[in-house]
Amino acid sequence: SCLGGSDNFKHLNEIDLFNNIDPNESKHKRTDRSILCCLRKGESGQAWPRLTKERAKLNWLSVDFNNWKDWEDDSDEDMSNFDRFSEV
């Protein structure tokens, strides 16, 4: 959750992800316009058919394919190369 807007209204969104993530290896950063999340799967090597458990399209949720890292190319590399998350 976060406060935003001229009236500091509290905004809250919950996303039921398709499967578990590793919270210690995942990061997020709030900007003026959005929240950027870099999620690390709890079990690497398993493809998810979608990000969320529900098949419904969430219009406010999108994937930044410029920063997409395919699980097939996964290595022991950490997320330090995601410079937009370095200030988190």
From TrEMBL:
<dbReference type="GO" id="GO:0007004">
    <property type="term" value="P:telomere maintenance via telomerase"/>
</dbReference>
<comment type="pathway">
    <text>Lipid metabolism; prostaglandin biosynthesis.</text>
</comment>
<dbReference type="InterPro" id="IPR008978">
    <property type="entry name" value="HSP20-like_chaperone"/>
</dbReference>
<keyword id="KW-0443">Lipid metabolism</keyword>
<keyword id="KW-0275">Fatty acid biosynthesis</keyword>
<keyword id="KW-0963">Cytoplasm</keyword>
<comment type="similarity">
    <text>Belongs to the p23/wos2 family.</text>
</comment>
<dbReference type="GO" id="GO:0051087">
    <property type="term" value="F:protein-folding chaperone binding"/>
</dbReference>
<dbReference type="GO" id="GO:0005634">
    <property type="term" value="C:nucleus"/>
</dbReference>
<dbReference type="GO" id="GO:0005829">
    <property type="term" value="C:cytosol"/>
</dbReference>
<dbReference type="GO" id="GO:0001516">
    <property type="term" value="P:prostaglandin biosynthetic process"/>
</dbReference>
<protein>
    <recommendedName>
        <fullName>Prostaglandin E synthase 3</fullName>
        <ecNumber>5.3.99.3</ecNumber>
    </recommendedName>
</protein>
<feature type="domain" description="CS">
    <location>
        <begin position="1"/>
        <end position="52"/>
    </location>
</feature>
<keyword id="KW-0644">Prostaglandin metabolism</keyword>
<keyword id="KW-0413">Isomerase</keyword>
<dbReference type="InterPro" id="IPR007052">
    <property type="entry name" value="CS_dom"/>
</dbReference>
<keyword id="KW-0276">Fatty acid metabolism</keyword>
<dbReference type="GO" id="GO:0050220">
    <property type="term" value="F:prostaglandin-E synthase activity"/>
</dbReference>
<dbReference type="GO" id="GO:0006457">
    <property type="term" value="P:protein folding"/>
</dbReference>
<dbReference type="GO" id="GO:0051879">
    <property type="term" value="F:Hsp90 protein binding"/>
</dbReference>
<dbReference type="GO" id="GO:0051131">
    <property type="term" value="P:chaperone-mediated protein complex assembly"/>
</dbReference>
<dbReference type="GO" id="GO:1905323">
    <property type="term" value="P:telomerase holoenzyme complex assembly"/>
</dbReference>
<keyword id="KW-0643">Prostaglandin biosynthesis</keyword>
<dbReference type="InterPro" id="IPR045250">
    <property type="entry name" value="p23-like"/>
</dbReference>
<keyword id="KW-0444">Lipid biosynthesis</keyword>
